[in-house]
Amino acid sequence: MDKQNEFLKMLGARIKSLRAEKGYTQEQLAEAMQTSYSYVAAIERGTKNVTVETLYKIAHALDTTVQELFTYEETMYQQSSKDTAMRILELLAQQNKSDSDKAYRILLELFR
């Protein structure tokens, strides 16, 4: 998947999440935006490129800011970081103390 498609899918997922948090259906969001629900569905699937004007309409309809529509990156990054940390911990838990200590020293050197 190319970067643009990935971006549109992430944006669509974020819009869908915000809409669900508000308890709105696609039809209700579309009505508030004065557009069709099929257009909202396409945006949420990440198959439609959106304009700044459309982003503003979405944000206004969801009683949020355009900036809030883009907070998914940080959220997804944080979750990815947590997942990576858990995999590292699971791997270390399987090692003996000597190897765990060695891995710790390597990480210390790597991040200095």
From TrEMBL:
Which Pfam families does the entry mention? HTH_3 (PF01381)
Tell me the InterPro entries matching this sequence. Cro/C1-type_HTH (IPR001387), Lambda_DNA-bd_dom_sf (IPR010982)
Arranged from A to Z, the UniProt key words for this protein are: DNA-binding
Domain of life of the native organism: Bacteria
> Listed GO molecular functions?
DNA binding
CDD domains, alphabetically?
HTH_XRE
The family database entries (Gene3D superfamilies) matched by this protein are listed as: lambda repressor-like DNA-binding domains
The HTH cro/C1-type domain is annotated at 15-69
Q: Does the keyword DNA-binding apply?
A: yes
Task: From the Swiss-Prot or TrEMBL record, give the protein name.
Answer: Helix-turn-helix domain-containing protein
- The organism encoding this protein is Paenibacillus lutrae
What are the top taxonomic ranks of the organism? Bacteria, Bacillati, Bacillota, Bacilli, Bacillales
